[in-house]
Amino acid sequence: MSVLITICARGGSKGIPGKNIRPLGGKPLISYSIEIAQRFASLNNGTVGLSTDAPDIRSVAASFGLETEYIRPEALSGDTVGKIDTIRDILLFEESRKGSKFDYILDLDVTSPLRTIEDLTSAFELIRQDAGAVNIFSVNKAGRNPYFNMVERNPEGYYSIVKKLNSPTLSRQSAPAVYEMNASFYFYRRDFFEQSYTSPVTDLSLIYEMPHVCFDLDHPVDFDFMEFLFVNHKLGFELT
């Protein structure tokens, strides 16, 4: 059994300029994904692959022991390109170089580094035990619930609850459980990339609920908040 661990880091971020290599807790953001990828690889016959179109990201990754001959094609470098196509391309590159196929692919999102080796190990075991699942991704309990306190515009132009049950949901506690994808990691069976999937959310997906705080960096304030957690030792767990 073999695993390809992919780290996809595009240059030219608009929301948080240079975020993939911006310092966080005294180290470049990408270093957290590289270090846990290397540890997971050492435990699971893994290969770590970097997909980037930016020389500065490539240089920083190399300083943490992740070097690559792969160069992301220009067609996969825009901010509207889907992640699945990006992963598939480096997967085929690494398999060509290896001369055989991987059994699983683990994608680590650089902008959501709050994960532990225990998270990865537990999630990996879940998908290996369920032969029907094509993938598994990390989530947290959602702060809002479409059965209780989320609304959308209805055909009449007014606003109503997004999802309705046969009887009204009168409290958050009685609403069905829903989850937020936190983008931290995704495990895929190799067959996933032989199908026509364009999204990690399928009818055959599993979830791994994080037992701790986890969120991705979309806006500058997210970076400030995560930096606060690092500097003041508020995470409550060790990243690796």
Q: What is the strand content? A: 15-25%
Looking at CATH, which topology of the largest domain would you report?
A: Spore Coat Polysaccharide Biosynthesis Protein SpsA, Chain A
How many strand units?
Answer: 10
Q: Report the CATH superfamily of the largest domain.
A: Spore Coat Polysaccharide Biosynthesis Protein SpsA, Chain A
* Domain module count: 2
Radius of gyration, Cα only, in angstroms? Answer: 19 Å
Coarse structural class: alpha/beta
Question: Which CATH top level class of the largest domain fits?
Answer: Alpha Beta
Quaternary structure type: single chain
Helical fraction = 25-40%
Low-confidence stretches: none
Report the total helices: 5
Q: State the major sheet.
A: 6 strands, mixed
Kindly state the mean pLDDT as a whole number? 92
Shape: globular
Distance between the termini: 23 Å
CATH architecture of the largest domain: Alpha-Beta Complex
Largest beta sheet: strand ordering: 4-1-5-9-6-10
The arrangement of helices and strands along the chain is EEEHEHHEHEEEEEH
Features:
Spore Coat Polysaccharide Biosynthesis Protein SpsA, Chain A, two-stranded antiparallel sheet, globular, 240 residues
Fold and architecture overview:
The protein has 240 residues and is α/β, with parallel strands linked by helices. The chain contains 5 helices and 10 strands; from the N terminus they run βββαβααβαβββββα. The strands form 3 sheets. A 6-stranded mixed β-sheet has the order 4-1-5-9-6-10, sandwiched between helices. It has a two-stranded antiparallel ribbon with strand order 2-3. β7 and β8 form a beta hairpin.
